[in-house]
# Entry
Amino acid sequence: MKPLHTPTHRLALASALVLALAACQPSAAPTAAAQAASAPALATVRPCMLLDREAAKAVLAQSVEPMNDDAENCMWRSADSPMAFTTLMLTLVNNDNEAMAAQVYEGVAGIGSKLGKMVNQPLGQTTRKTARVIDGLGDEAVFLASNMGEMVQSSQVVVRKGRRVAAFVLTGMGESDGAAARLEAAARRAVERL
# Structure
């Protein structure tokens, strides 16, 4: 008969003891990563699939050139007038759950006016801003407009739909008649496809 105090037997007994103790422990609450892994995956949608060249051209009311096209951002710039440079950007954020999406939405919706204030305060200029809720667009949506200095205007449509947050941002020199309505229309068309 072999003695039970050999190194091999001690290792086997220690392993069995660890496994037995682990089995007796109460199960822990699932981690955020585990919850995210169990959430249904969102279909992959690149922002430039939602805001293509024709949509950007319609919003800017002129020819456009691409600036960025990646998994989270799509950015276009005006091409007709170098002196009236305007950009249109869509940032699409996929979140783990709707609660996180709501927090991201609140944060993104607040950035525009804060950025305008940061630019204007050192210049001694007043920040002009407009905000209005947009009904019937995603789960919640807001239109924001502000200035950054005397010449730069910014308009945003921020939308939350389920676990996604989309920010459509139009920034440029001066104001274009109807640009806010065109931006909202582009956001509506894009969000329908999310």
Remarks:
- The CA atoms of residues 13 and 19 lie 10 Å apart.
- The chain has two domains: 7-38, 47-192.
